[in-house]
Amino acid sequence: MTKKKKQNNYRKSLPAAQYIETALIGYELLNSPQLNKGTAFTAIERKNFNLLGKIPPHIETLDEQVVRAYAQLKSYENPNKKNIFLNELYNTNNVLFYKLASSHIEEITPIIYTPHVAVNCQTFSNEFRRPQGLYISYQDKNYLSEIIASYSCDKIDLIIVTDSERILGIGDQGIGGIGICIGKLMLYTLFGGINPLRTLPIVLDMGTNNKKLLADPTYLGLRRPRITGSKYISFIDDFVAALKQKIPNVLLQWEDFGRLNAPVILKRYRSQICSFNDDIQGTAVVTLAAILAAIKILKQKLTDQRIVILGAGSAAIGIANLITLGMKHSKARQCFWLLDNIGLITEESENIIQSQKPYLRKICDIKNWNIKNRKAISLLEVVKNVKPTILIGCSTAANSFTKEIVREMAKHVERPIIFPLSNPTANSEANPSDLIKWTNGQALIATGSPFDSIAQCNNALVFPGIGLGVIASKAQEVTDEMLWAAVGALYKESPSLKNPANPLLPPIKEASRIAKKIGKKVAAIALKNTNVNKLIAQTTWKIEYKKIVPI
Fold first, then answer.
1. Stretch 42-64: mean pLDDT, rounded?
2. How far apart are CA 279 and CA 281, in angstroms?
3. What is the pLDDT, as a whole number, of residue 8?
């Protein structure tokens, strides 16, 4: 029997889902992170793919490789070096990376995602080693179709795209924003089981207004001020058109766009191409789930809440919009008081954007308030007059929930609900230990960044499941009904429902299990069919080595 016939017979003996065909051999195969197994290549694979002598002779299992990789990770004390090691592993062997991360979720997630992903974005040009994804600059606006069409794999289920204008709480990071896309795609795979071979990070380099980057000789992006206005929208239009032509059924996640552009983009393209904005929609889902858990403890209704939000950007508006939908009454928006960096936004405020308009307070609402300046009403003044039951921070203003403000809130509310959601950790509006002390242990708390023994409003509890459900069902739109289904699924997993002393949200180690539950709810709505278990299982990528066979 010829070698080719033996290979064909071997291929036929395997279920299609258990093998991958490739023409790569030797070092080309070892340098492919999607296919490389390192010391786990079998004897047959080593012979078929010209690997004999190119790797150590002992054949290891994936679990044995994980033990070594974890020991290597633990040898680094500096978080930056740990992050570099993990990224190098990701760029060397995808399966081993995900197996290691899944085996040590709580330890590794903060290194590859928040809070450390902020450092990745800030140091992208300095630490650049190898390209990942697509870097589409404004200067290449006439070649959008060619750039997208040239990508090596046209079977893409999920794209995360950013223009890097407002990365986390650290602002404009230029081309470095691709780091947030890479980090979130890792979690889509780790928790949601999205096949990493079918994902793509993209950064749209529209220039940068970050003076530090523009002055940095190592900066790898366009060295010019940001494109704005009609030129910006025209570029985004062309980008979406090119995607629809090449990958029409992709789930497109818009990530960390600026406060002016984010809501406009989501509204403009939501029905054109299956779109999701985690900053607006994902943050809203996880926050509302935590709020529902908190008011369950208090035996209250959502409609009874007085909600003050510090920060009036896309995340804050997303939270307010979803809660408004949940309240289901005509005066729901009257339950909100939103503050920007000037103060309470009112009908007299300047530089108001369209998405904020439904939440502007009328002057008659504040006519009896004791305030110093009607055009710059402070958070303390708002808290004194509104007596909020819920205080949420989306401001990135570190320590802005001061002792005076929190104690003022606690005077009027027996158990205040306080969510300092800004990240990274250095930008949190308050430290939970202070909130507990200032409220004599009565505050119900969830944070955006990780703190010990405190519920984290971590979007990673939400977006992987939403993505899984959308991709499995091939949904054409991420609807409000799907978002509500995600809220309900996460709320039901709250540890506080079993014991009010427990955190409001489950720990990140539960994210994979929760993603499956959210995915099933989302897919069921998209397909109008609750029997989606098999579909979700078929869509979920398993962290395991597949047999490699020659084409």
1. 97
2. 6
3. 54
Please, are residues 254 and 276 in contact by the beta-carbon 8 Å criterion? yes
Please give the span between the terminal C-alpha atoms of the chain, in angstroms, as a whole number: 18
H/E segment holding residue 410: helix 403-412
Annotation marks residue 403 as catalytic? no
Q: In what order do the strands lie in the sheet with 307-310?
A: 336-339, 307-310, 390-393, 417-420, 444-447, 455-456
The residue among 290, 291, 239, 247 whose CA lies nearest residue 265 is 239
What CA–CA distance (Å, rounded) separates 399 from 413?
21
Measured between alpha carbons, how far is 495 from 444 in angstroms, rounded to an integer?
A: 13
219 is catalytic: no
Tokens, residue 416: 């205040």
Q: Of 98, 113, 219, 232, which is the active-site residue?
A: 113
- DSSP code at position 171: B
More confident residue, 449 or 162: 162
Both structure tokens of 336: 């909100």
pTM: 0.93
Q: Which of 469, 406, 478 is nearest to 442 (CA)?
A: 406
The span from the CA of 237 to the CA of 17, in Å, is 37
CA distances 161 to 241, 275, 311, 465, Å, are: 14, 11, 24, 19
> Average model confidence (pLDDT) for the chain?
93
DSSP designation for 272: T
Q: State residue 186's pLDDT score.
A: 97
Q: Model confidence at 4, in pLDDT bands (50, 70, 90)?
A: low
CB 289 within 8 A of CB 497: no
**Backbone Cα Rg of the chain:** 25
Half-sphere exposure of 377 (CA within 13 A, CB side): 27
Point out the catalytic residue in the list 99, 184, 516, 521: 184
With CA atoms as reference, report the closest residue to 446 among 392, 410, 400.
392
